[in-house]
Amino acid sequence: MGPPRRLELPRPASRREGPRRGERPRLIEILVAVAVIVGLCGLGGGLGGCATSPHPRAHARAPHTRRLPAPIVAAAHVEAAAPRDEGAAFVERSLRDSGLHFGTDGSTRALWEYLRLTHETVSATRARSGDVLFFDTRASGADPDCDDTTDHAGVVESIEPDGRIIFLEARGGQVRRSVVDPAHPTQRRTERGEIANSFLRAKLVADPPNARYFAGEMLCGVARIDR
Questions:
Q1: Cβ atoms within 10 A of the Cβ of 41, count?
Q2: Are residues 179 and 196 in contact, defined by beta-carbon separation less than 8 angstroms?
Q3: Are 132 and 103 in contact (CB under 8 A)?
Q4: Half-sphere exposure of 91 toward its Cβ, with a 13 Å CA cutoff?
Q5: 218 is a domain residue
Q6: CA–CA dist 3, 61 (Å, integer)
Q7: Domain that holds residue 153
Q8: Domain-embedded: residue 111
Q9: pLDDT tens per residue, range 68-121
Q10: pLDDT tens digits for 43-75?
Q11: Label partner for 152 (CA 20 to 30 A): which of 87, 90, 162, 218?
Q12: Using CA atoms in the order 191, 194, 199, 202, what is the torsion angle rounded to 10 degrees?
């Protein structure tokens, strides 16, 4: 047998070697950065500068609000604002679309005065398509009077064989087809069950006992355009 082999035991761990080249400067940079951040937080803590603010809601960002251009905002306000007298506005627009040129202050009373003075007024029994109807819708038992108060208007669309007048009006933000029977102003329906007079105003608790509601009770004038 040959000479015994020499066992090599693992060398015990030596003392920790020093940092490799480049590690010490990097460690110093980290420590400096931490010191700077801590110092800034200490200075800004009174103003809520640290990340852990005791009142997070107080520093929450306000929700983003989109501002519309000024012309769009103005147009929206004009569109939302209802006309002071939508019935008169509807009639005036219809007359202008037919080629009539005139101007008023937008009220039904001014429209009545213009048509009465510069055109022609006729009785309700002579009404025909294209004529303008005027109403006094006050909650009163007095006879309707256009020269006193007229606050609603419509345009005659057609005349029924029994004398009922079919007219177009703007009320409550809608264009409506309504009926008025000058011969039977207080009648709601005809003997055949057809509507004789449309309601031009809703019943209110504060209305007097003799308040008017039917179109026939409120009709106060008919104007005809001279062509």
A1: 13
A2: yes
A3: no
A4: 35
A5: yes
A6: 85
A7: 83-224
A8: yes
A9: 444 433 333 433 444 569 999 999 999 999 999 999 999 999 999 999 999 999
A10: 555 445 555 544 445 444 544 444 444 443 333
A11: 162
A12: 90
Q: Is the dihedral of CA 190, 193, 195, 199 positive or negative?
A: positive
Number of domains in the chain: 1
* Nearby residues of 34 by Cβ (< 8 Å), 6 or more positions away: none
For residue range 122-174, what is the model confidence (pLDDT) as tens digits?
999 999 999 999 999 987 877 889 998 899 999 999 999 999 999 999 999 99
Show the tokens assigned to 124.
């309700």
Paired tokens of 96: 């202008």
> Is 109 part of any domain?
yes
